[in-house]
Amino acid sequence: MALIRFLIKLFTFIGLLVSASALVLTVILILRFPPILIAVGIALLLFQWLLKRLSSFE
Q1: Contact 21, 14 (CB under 8 A)
Q2: 3-class secondary structure, 58
Q3: What is the tally of structural domains in the chain?
Q4: Contact predicate 57/51, CB 8 Å
Q5: Cβ(12)–Cβ(2) under 8 Å?
Q6: Radius of gyration of the chain (CA)
Q7: Eight-state DSSP code of residue 42
Q8: Nearest to residue 26, comparing CAs of 47, 12, 42, 40?
Q9: Which entry of 8, 24, 39, 52 is 20 to 30 Å from 17 by CA?
Q10: What is the 3-state secondary structure (H, E, C) of 11-34?
Q11: Domain residue limits at 7
Q12: Could you read off the pLDDT of 28-51 as tens digits, one per residue?
């Protein structure tokens, strides 16, 4: 049982490190290539617009 708990904690920690490094790499890419920042901004605006449209149907 202790081995299972250890493995769960280990994989959780590894997943946390991987997600944090992916976030840092994404920020570095966005700052390095400004068109990516524009594309992300447009994608977020479209997503916000889509959420507003979907919530108005309820």
Answers
A1: no
A2: coil
A3: 1
A4: no
A5: no
A6: 19
A7: H
A8: 40
A9: 39
A10: HHHHHHHHHHHHHHHHHHHHHHCH
A11: 1-56
A12: 988 899 898 899 899 999 999 999
